[in-house]
């Protein structure tokens, strides 16, 4: 018994070692097996970079950009170089000088006089561009210009209209209503299609508004119109036939413009849909940007839309 116990222990130990070593060498996963089970990498999608030709084409479609000087001239409606060299009349200078008078009433009278003065706005812009003004004079002159640009009288025909494409194939402005008390009542009829104003082609309502409202009440205007006539009208000079047995005759009309004020619209309030109002407001903003030290310096502490609801200022009742 004494000699058998160590022998059994050695045999058992050897047997255990064999059992332990066996599984380690036969079941250990290899690197090749791991690679086989791994998921394949996601395919890479190539990203197509923009071609140079595309960028070049986009730039050509947009057209040439205006330089700074040309942009300023268009915004102001005047050439700053010409304004600097403009000979301002001495009597205009005298009224501008009174904008800085110690007497408040005299400053108000001078502002009212400049608003109604029969001169172009270029004269007052020349005074601003040439400088040498006190702060009070400059601020008042800017407010005068704002009033003159926004509230200068506008011409009016006195019609309601829509594009003629809804009625005939010729592009023009179709008269859908004639407003009583304005010039169109005497010379235009419902159904007329306006094709030209003073020799310039008109295809949209915006074209007509822009041309008419840049003129003043009383200015003469000439229109080329086609007017519907009965379908059995015989062919002849000035007779036009369209699909659906629509027959028109060519008519030329000429008349003095009426006043936009008679339409009952505030000329400064609604810019949407009125190209002339948008043009005038853009002009005012350009004037402020060039000669106003800040919006507040020209009496506009709020954005333009918030300030335009106020009508034109009254001239002082005691002014001469």
Quick overview of this protein structure:
The chain is of the alpha+beta class. Helices cover 43% and strands 15% of the residues. The longest helix is centred in the first third of the chain and has 24 residues, at 4-27.
Say how many strands there are. 9
Number of distinct helices: 13
Average pLDDT over all residues: 72
- Please identify the structural class as seen in this structure: alpha+beta
What is the H-and-E element order?
Answer: HHHHHHHHHEEEHEEHEEEEHH
Tell me the number of structural domains. 2
User: Which ranges are low-confidence, i.e. pLDDT below 50, for 5 or more consecutive residues?
Assistant: 1-33, 49-66, 295-320
Q: In percent terms, what proportion of residues is strand?
A: 5-15%
Radius of gyration: 41 Å
Shape descriptor reads: elongated
- Straight-line distance between termini: 148 Å
Report the biggest beta sheet as strand number plus sense, adding barrel if it closes: 7 strands, antiparallel
Range of helix content: 40-55%
């Amino acid at each position: 018994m004494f000699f058998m116990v160590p022998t059994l222990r050695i045999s058992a130990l050897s047997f255990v070692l064999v059992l332990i070593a066996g599984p380690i060498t036969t079941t250990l996963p290899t690197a090749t097996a791991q690679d086989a089970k791994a998921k394949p990498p996601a395919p890479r999608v190539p990203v197509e970079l923009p071609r140079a030709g595309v960028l070049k084409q986009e730039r050509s479609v947009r057209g040439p950009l205006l330089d700074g000087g040309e942009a300023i001239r268009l915004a102001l409606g005047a050439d700053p170089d010409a304004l600097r060299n403009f000979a301002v009349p001495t009597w205009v200078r005298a009224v501008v000088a009174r904008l800085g008078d110690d007497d408040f009433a005299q400053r108000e009278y001078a502002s009212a006089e400049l608003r109604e003065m029969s001169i172009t706005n270029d004269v007052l812009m020349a005074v601003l561009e040439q400088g040498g003004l006190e702060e009070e004079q400059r601020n008042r002159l800017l407010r005068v210009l704002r009033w003159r640009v926004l509230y200068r009288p506008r011409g009016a025909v006195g019609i309601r209209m829509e594009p003629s494409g809804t009625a005939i194939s010729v592009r023009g402005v179709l008269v859908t209503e004639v407003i009583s008390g304005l010039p169109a009542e005497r010379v235009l009829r419902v159904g007329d299609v306006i094709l030209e104003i003073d020799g310039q082609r008109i295809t949209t309502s915006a074209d007509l508004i822009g041309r008419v409202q840049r003129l003043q009440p009383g200015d003469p205007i000439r229109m080329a119109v086609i007017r519907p006539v009965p379908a059995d009208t015989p062919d002849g000079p000035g007779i036009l036939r369209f699909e659906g047995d629509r027959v028109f005759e060519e008519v030329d009309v000429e008349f003095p413009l009426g006043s936009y004020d008679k339409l009952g619209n505030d000329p400064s309030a609604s810019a949407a849909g009125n190209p002339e109002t948008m043009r005038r407001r853009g002009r005012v903003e350009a004037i402020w940007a060039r000669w106003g030290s800040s919006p507040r310096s020209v009496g506009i502490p709020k954005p333009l839309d918030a300030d335009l609801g106020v009508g034109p200022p009254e001239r002082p009742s005691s002014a001469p």
